[in-house]
């Protein structure tokens, strides 16, 4: 037992969609690799003995009343270089936003020092908000993408990082694009190899991701080559898919088929693929995603600005599509998945009820579209783990011990939740955490069995 | 000059809809009544002298770099007794939510000790989030509503408080309704008189508000009597108006006219009237509101759960209707107007773009519906002041000095905003504050020239 850490705590997680499981005062037994070896419940015959020996050995972690563990959140879509512009310029049209703000900003990451400064802060900010795993878009610059992976290693976050490919000279500005298709593919391969090397020193995992920005910015040759690289190294793939009216139309005009079908034909869909937005995926696209095991990074805040519509989460879920949540920094302003959880629920209700009060109720919305906050919680945790095909997002044997410790108690704390001895069932406590927690209430964050952040 | 406090600071406000004004390093001269007597800009010939004498007299307040003053936010719709259930049960239909959770909870406020405990916490929580003025619904119990006013006085918040009237035995549960119409009106009048008395000891103002819950819960006689009381004492009026498909239909069936017209005919619309939600107000209702000076409390988070639609803010604004923002605790889960500001923008964009991706763009949304974050900021400040017909919400001579001090600087602070020397125009700084500030960044709150909250 000596090499195990024992963490005694109350915890919530959601192994099954729409359901929560409350683990009351359990003992998490975490091995030296940061993996949960066992979860011992209070009624287990060994409970007291394991507790006593951990106390004696000095490897017991306990928490005061009012503390709850949640699985670390999994953010499936972050444009790391866009962090400096989070919250600004969101009133501009997409084209201006990209060309006047985003692309000039991303071009700055040719500077490794700038990259290091921004990425160090971003990783910290995401950890502070309980996010333990992130699927990152970098910029086109492989070396600054490696800086992002190093920031993850240094701070203990699990990071999946992609060097962005955007090679089509007709679609991308000269100051910010891959210098050629060959170069884009060669740099991607070099990046993959460097990342596999870095991963050796990262117990929590840092993984390379094949990352065509989206079909409109890439040549056919690049897309084909990236599909082949992903297969060769068996690595993750990410891109944007069917995000807006414009993107949807663009791909249809170019290939005479949908975005999802085109991605599939380039070998870019599969169990390790995560596609952002997908608001215009449609039923055929959904079936293709379900068949291939491709997941959606649902970014509800960003979709309100650039997605032209709401992702029909409830119906996609029924079709068997894997769905997780993404902040989409900086198309989405917030670095917090809590904010996106809430917006996922709100947007789903607005899809169900409709938005235009001049229309009669039956024409206004789309019935049976709402999801609950507990379902959104599943997307931010279990769903994210499934999307990435990694053993994360749940408190479960053989899964990584990734957790955020939320303290809702009012004792000497500046930010508290309403209590008054009411609405304190297990599910209500979790609802209050998800709806009302402020960043300040996230007291600790653990990744792969290691405490990587504390704010007390 | 001796009796003046001098506050030297950078400040943002929005005297004109859609525009911001940045006051750089100005001197706010605030008199003993907490009113702004003057705002001295750096280029004014007296600037240095006023600064020097304030320093000498020891009545100068300064702030470190990275601090910005915003007007205190004005929350136009809070159900104070519902604070204990914020964030819970939002997945239930409105009828169950009211009858199983809300009404039983509100009935508990017959207990003054319980009222005192909850209201003390609620006022504190709202102040922590920069909210300096609140238009509160209480419960049916006059004495516990007076406890709410006392909590405001004790903590220095400006509170407008209504004893709720719901007298119709056919529409309200026996355990939670006014015992008779006469009693409802007599209690309202007693409450008004007590509040006018309490107001004597509250420099920031605590005001009585005539508060029929909404038309469906009141008899004709009560509505008429309340209109008369409001006129007799020249006090504020609040209620709900055209909130949902159900309410809209109910009133139409009962009176053969719209909710707004019915309220008007009972003498309940006017310059001091604020009506919550109004999602189904329609163009005729909007014109009536504009004519009478009646304001809308726009509650974008709550509307996503119970409003069945989005308030068409942009078009109502063009019709000249006064609009401010409300959290609608606990139909809205969040005690923060920051969250509602952001949702106001998001909801407006979803109204413009539509929500159902299976429809073509031209049928999906309603053109020209979006508002900007700067326009939403106006609603939370200047708009709220206009709605209440009080000199608040702007930094302006003869206005109350109500401010929140937001510190975005990274020096030794746990929560910071992205900077990196980019996107730092005045408007971009304000956008970042509005989109990214956490409660922790609100370092001080001032009401009527008095510092009523600090977190440092």
From TrEMBL, chains A, B:
GO terms for biological process: guanine catabolic process. Its EC number is 3.5.4.3. Residues 68-452 form the Amidohydrolase-related domain. GO terms for cellular component: cytosol. It holds the Pfam family Amidohydro_1. One of its GO terms (molecular function) is guanine deaminase activity. The keyword Zinc applies. Gene3D superfamilies: Metal-dependent hydrolases, Urease, subunit C, domain 1. Transmembrane segments: none annotated. Binds 1 zinc ion per subunit. InterPro entries: Amidohydro-rel (IPR006680), Guanine_deaminase (IPR014311), Metal-dep_hydrolase_composite (IPR011059), Metal_Hydrolase (IPR032466), Metallo-dep_hydrolases (IPR051607). The keyword Aminoacyl-tRNA synthetase does not apply. Its cofactor is Zn(2+). It comes from the Bacteria. Catalyzes the hydrolytic deamination of guanine, producing xanthine and ammonia. Belongs to the metallo-dependent hydrolases superfamily. ATZ/TRZ family. This is Guanine deaminase.
């Amino acid at each position: 037992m000596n090499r195990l850490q024992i963490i005694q705590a109350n915890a919530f997680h959601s192994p099954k969609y729409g359901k929560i499981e409350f683990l009351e005062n359990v003992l998490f037994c975490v091995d030296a690799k940061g993996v949960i070896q066992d979860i011992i419940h209070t009624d287990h015959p060994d409970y007291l003995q394991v507790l006593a020996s951990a106390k004696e050995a000095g490897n017991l972690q306990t928490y005061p009343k009012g503390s709850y563990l949640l699985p670390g959140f999994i953010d499936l879509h972050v444009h790391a270089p866009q962090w400096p512009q989070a919250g600004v310029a969101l009133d501009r049209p997409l084209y201006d936003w990209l060309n006047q703000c985003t692309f000039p900003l991303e071009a700055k990451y040719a500077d490794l020092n700038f990259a290091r400064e921004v990425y160090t802060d971003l990783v910290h900010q995401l950890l502070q908000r309980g996010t333990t795993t992130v699927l990152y878009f970098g910029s086109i610059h492989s070396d600054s993408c490696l800086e992002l992976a190093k920031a993850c290693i240094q701070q203990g976050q699990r990071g999946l990082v992609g060097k962005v490919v955007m090679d089509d000279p007709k679609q991308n500005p000269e100051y910010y694009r891959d210098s050629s298709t060959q170069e884009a593919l060669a740099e991607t391969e070099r990046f993959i190899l460097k990342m596999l090397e870095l991963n050796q020193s990262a117990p929590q995992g840092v993984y390379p991701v094949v990352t065509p920005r989206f079909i409109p910015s890439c040549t056919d040759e690049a897309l084909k080559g990236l599909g082949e690289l992903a297969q060769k190294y068996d690595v993750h793939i990410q891109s944007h898919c069917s995000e807006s009216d414009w993107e949807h139309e663009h791909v249809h005009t170019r290939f005479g088929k949908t975005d999802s079908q085109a991605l599939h034909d380039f070998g870019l869909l599969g169990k390790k693929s995560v596609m952002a937005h997908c608001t215009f995926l449609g039923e055929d696209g959904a079936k293709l995603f379900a068949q291939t095991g491709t997941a959606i990074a649902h970014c509800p805040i960003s979709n309100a600005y650039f997605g032209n519509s709401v992702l029909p989460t409830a119906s996609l879920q029924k079709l068997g599509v894997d769905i997780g949540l993404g902040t989409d920094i900086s198309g989405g302003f917030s670095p917090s998945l809590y904010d996106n959880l809430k917006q996922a629920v709100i947007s789903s209700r607005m899809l169900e009820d409709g938005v235009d009060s001049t229309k009669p109720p039956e024409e206004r919305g789309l019935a049976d579209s709402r999801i609950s906050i507990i379902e959104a919680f599943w997307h931010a945790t279990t769903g994210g783990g499934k999307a990435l095909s990694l053993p994360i997002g749940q408190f479960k044997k053989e899964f990584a011990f990734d957790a955020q410790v939320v303290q809702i108690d009012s004792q000497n704390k500046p930010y508290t939740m309403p209590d008054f001895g009411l609405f304190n069932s297990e599910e209500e406590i979790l609802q209050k955490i998800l709806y009302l927690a402020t960043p300040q209430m996230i007291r600790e964050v653990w990744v792969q069995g290691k405490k990587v952040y504390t704010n007390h």
